[in-house]
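Structure request: O-Antigen polymerase family protein, Listeria riparia FSL S10-1204.
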Amino acid sequence: MGESVRYLYFIFEWLYVLFLCVYYIRDEKTYQLFAKGLMMLYIGILCIGVWECLTGNHLSQSGSLFYETTTSAFQPTGFQFNTNDFASLLTILFPIVVMQLTTWKHKSLMLIGMIGIGGTSLYLVIMTNSRLAMIVLLLEILVLLFGWSKVWSFVSIYVLSIGALLVSTFHSSRFIKQLLDMVKNSFTEKGHSTSERMQMYQASWDIIKESHFMGIGAGNLPLRLDEYMYGFERLSDNYWAPHNYWLEAFANGGILAFLPLLAFFIGYFIFAIRYWVKAHYDITSAIPLLIGIAFVAASVGLSSTIDKRHLCLGIGTGLAVLNICYFQKGGLKNDS
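Returned structure:
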């Protein structure tokens, strides 16, 4: 009962945040005000992440203070509990923040801000060892550069060339070598973690089939998964995170709950892609699509998704942008 109430509460919270975003962010002026505040918060989060990486200290609720690994001391968590949560926060808000930077009138400051925020975000995501977050952030940077290159193609190529030159020049430095080693290790030394997740996915699918696709009740999959993975029922209710939002939703609510959820996200991506194409791949029009991609990555990268408020805030912002685009006067404008 406790897990069911918890799960239903977070469903209500998600719906409420989505409603608030669409209801209040209904025009370009309101969106710009919201994005400015979000950008200031994002910069503050980046500062906390860098402080954690440099000092090994963390905020009081950081998971790095509860579990100890060989790397956790200098891995950033920010306001989140663990590193994967922090990485998902950076990737889902990154497009909103970068787009807001393009509204700056001084081009030199805008370029410095983009390089600073982009470089710091990439550094912190690498430090989290989150493979999906690294891929998503690089994809976001490439898509945004593609939309930005119509005006800044020469500058983009120039910056990328200088960056490649610096990496090749300082490849032997300890800092660059450490980052490159972390990227390599993230993709080559997590075989046990990957196989464990595949085992959990198979177990979740078996539970779905055993329920005849009708669901086992809201919030019950982590409890059933714990019994499945251990092979017996324990005295107290123990929580085993499924690490897959889609399988968790399917197992908890069954096909009657999963189909509307699937239809919502399919519709979201259809309208996001249409907006992007309609705006001729403009940097601003890519925001809803990139937010959606970041959410999908987080939905299979995080241990649990339903209790991550920054994810529903991101989706809510994406919905608000689509609402402005399709129901207001022409959508957001890019002043860069």
